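Hi V.,

You were right to ask for the full record rather than a summary. Here it is.
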Amino acid sequence: MEGSVSEDMGNLSLFDAHAHLNWFEDPAEAAARSQELGVSALCCTVSPEEYKQARALLSKCPNVRVAAGLHPWFVDEATDADDASEAIGGSAWVGEVGLDFGAKHAYTKKDQLRVFEAICEACSDGGKTLSLHSVRSAGAVLDVLEKTGAIDTCRCVFHWFSGTTEELARAKAAGCWFSVGERMLGTRRGREYARQIPTSKLLLETDLPEAKNDGSPATTIAESLSRAAEALMSIKEDWKPSRARLF
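Predicted structure:
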């Protein structure tokens, strides 16, 4: 509801490192309302076409950066890796990209790897921020980032990390960042991972809205960030929302 953002958090500047603001029914209004609430966000997209549309809607919003993405769910044998890498590699903000080897999407594993490697090659010249999807594939994502050199030249952010403890240790050692939300922090495993991640590499996220043309108010973003920030500060006393930003 309007005005339900926690009084303790409401005056703080909050940053959403992985949102889908363009999925709101009125993206520009959602961005403007978020700015009023002190919220800035990285708006991740799921295809080059969606990126173009979102950029047209949100590029003039000072509290939003729009990332060029190609979600692994939308990759198959027909996906042209050269076209995808050209469309995405030209942006300083890249996401949502990565791999998904879960049961529903493992059948496109070969094509996902082909396309994700091309994207990372296009990003390896540096100066980019990547928001990474890595369901049952964190090790493979790291392999591609290392193979292409993107892990050394880009700021690599694992969105909603769900890999193994060993994969977490590897990503931490590589200097990766991690964006965590209230749903991740609502699990015992998610809280333990947050404890293990260096404070300087922790960002908040919402991954909201969950579907396109969402009619809910923009305050859902601020409310979710507020709850996640409170949960994270209870885990890591030295973590501060005002410092957890990408821009």
